[in-house]
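Input record, target 12 of the design panel.
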């Protein structure tokens, strides 16, 4: 018979993402509706180690659905990675009679969730990260809001680029994943996106800018992923210098494409969650409670083709590595040939979708 849950804990950990608060609210309301008490663990795994938590009643989570950041706060806690820290965390959970945990965060947070699961604390992960870098899920909480924030800002840069016939290179967050960069490049009408998933032909990009300027294009935008921390600023300088030389050589001022650089940095993490992120956070939060109370553990909630479903944390980690090409020997030994084929097909489809989207950007950027 499935374990009877009386009290569960919920935390947000790792990089914050708009919609994390909406997910905590959903977890709280869903659990309370099923007669299960909820403790909000403050500051991720750090709060678990140092016994910092508050009871989350339905009233406590009122007026939280539209908050940005996370009202439970987030932290990176190295102590939790050590056995001693983890044992302290487990002792805190036992002291409060917490029977299970819902951990909202990214891949690091899920590693922590597995560590709890294998030590007898049922734990379910919910993907909350602006980067959309959980391969097993089409969407993560905060991704849509981050992209919306990017295009709001880039639209403002576009206004001034058009007035002054300038180019703006904009660097956006996303860690090792180019999802934010590529999608916002398309949605903001940029001429190029520089992403980790595809090689960047700088010369072709500069030649395109020059050709388009000759054809009369005034404003230009290029979106660059933070995975290339110096590229954006250098590219802006290079385009400015190359087109200045060209303008002087041809005696045509209009060929000069003055180029500026802008790093949106952490602005991308803030702001009230969009409708999509509030819905995703709510559906995922409720599903996480359902899974935990059904006796499941060491899973994450994911979205696939618009449906909320689950997969094993280990499965998700192997998919991440397959996607990035960083699998190490032995990592897939536990899976059957059929399971591996399923994973490989999933990755191939995801990569093909990404490739097509990138090709579409390049075709339309003219
Ligand atoms: P994210 O969840 O956004 O990927 P981090 O990688 O910083 O963010 O991880 C968040 C937290 O999860 C860490 O500060 C740590 O407390 C915990 N964590 C990360 N990796 C591990 C691990 N290998 N084992 C146990 N806990 C981990």
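The sequence produced for target 12 reads:
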């Amino acid at each position: 018979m499935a374990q009877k849950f009386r009290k569960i804990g919920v935390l947000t950990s790792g990089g914050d993402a708009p919609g994390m608060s909406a997910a905590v609210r959903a977890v709280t309301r869903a659990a309370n509706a099923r007669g299960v008490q909820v403790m909000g663990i403050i500051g991720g795994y750090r709060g678990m180690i140092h016994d910092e938590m508050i009871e989350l009643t339905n009233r406590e989570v009122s007026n939280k659905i539209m908050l940005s950041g996370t009202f439970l706060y987030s932290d990176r806690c190295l102590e939790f990675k050590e056995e001693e820290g983890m044992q302290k965390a487990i002792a805190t959970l036992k002291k409060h009679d917490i029977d299970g945990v819902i951990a909202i965060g990214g891949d690091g947070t899920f590693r922590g969730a597995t560590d709890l699961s294998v030590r007898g604390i049922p734990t379910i992960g919910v993907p909350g990260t602006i980067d959309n870098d959980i391969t097993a899920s089409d969407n993560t909480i905060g991704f849509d809001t981050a992209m919306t924030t990017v295009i709001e800002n880039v639209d403002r840069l576009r206004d001034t680029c058009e007035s002054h016939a300038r180019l703006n290179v904009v660097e956006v967050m996303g860690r090792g994943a180019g999802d934010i960069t590529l999608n916002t490049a398309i949605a903001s009408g940029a001429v190029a996106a520089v992403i980790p998933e595809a090689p960047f032909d700088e010369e072709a990009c500069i030649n395109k800018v020059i050709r388009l300027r000759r054809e009369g294009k005034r404003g230009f935008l290029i979106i660059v992923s933070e995975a290339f921390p110096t590229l954006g600023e250098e590219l802006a300088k290079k385009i400015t210098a190359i087109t200045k030389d060209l303008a002087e050589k041809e005696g045509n001022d209009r060929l000069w494409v003055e180029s500026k650089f802008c790093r949106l940095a952490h602005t991308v993490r803030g702001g009230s969650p969009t409708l999509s992120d509030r819905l995703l956070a709510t559906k995922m939060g409720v599903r996480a409670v359902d899974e935990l109370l059904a006796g499941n553990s060491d899973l994450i909630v994911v979205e696939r083709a618009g449906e909320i479903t689950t997969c094993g944390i280990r499965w998700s980690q192997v998919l991440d590595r397959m996607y990035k090409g960083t699998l190490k020997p032995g990592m897939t030994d536990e899976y059957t040939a059929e399971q591996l084929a399923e994973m490989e097909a999933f990755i191939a489809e995801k990569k093909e979708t990404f490739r097509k989207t990138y090709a579409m950007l390049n075709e339309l950027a003219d």
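The first strand starts at residue 7 and ends at 12.
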